[in-house]
Amino acid sequence: MKRSLMLLGMGAALMLPLSAEEKPRTGVVHIQTLFRDYYKTLEAQAQINAERARIQKEENEMLQRVKVFDEKLRDQTKRLQDSELEEEERSALSRDVGMLFQEREALERLRKQSIQARHLELNQKMVARMNGILEEIRGIIAESAEGAGFDYVFDVEGLSTAQVPFLLYTKDATDITPMIQKELGKGAPAE
Prior knowledge:
Radius of gyration: 30 Å
Largest sheet: 3 strands, parallel
Oligomer: single chain
Number of strands: 3
Strand order of the largest sheet: 2-1-3
Mean pLDDT: 85
Order of helices and strands: HEHHHEEH
Strand content: 5-15%
Helix content: over 70%
């Protein structure tokens, strides 16, 4: 919605009459390329992947604990089927199997809830961080475009709500992506 209003406003601005001498300077950028290649995006993705791996490791550890319960349950169930088992022992063993089953189910529920909550939290952090990076890139684009004297800058990869590229054609548009990439790379750590 916000993007549609912004595009509508830009379209209306393009309709404004210009004097015969004025010609708007139009630039284009490839925002996905800028975002994908930005060192802060790469750092964020590496941190998110490390966190996902840590969550997966913890999930595997909890799953191993569940498997231990499964083996105990199998063993106890086999013992229950022993025909030579006294009635008193069978009753005690049956109670133990029931308790083991409840503990196993509680652990499985805890595992699923914990993993689901951790993934949800990580996804929310990831979205917030990526939005912050996009806002930073947009700010640098606006600042650089203004400094270079551009009147309009369009994202050539941007899509309308119908998933059609917003910018289909522009005459004399300058691709400022390399200029922005250079600007974004200024703060990159040395490799």
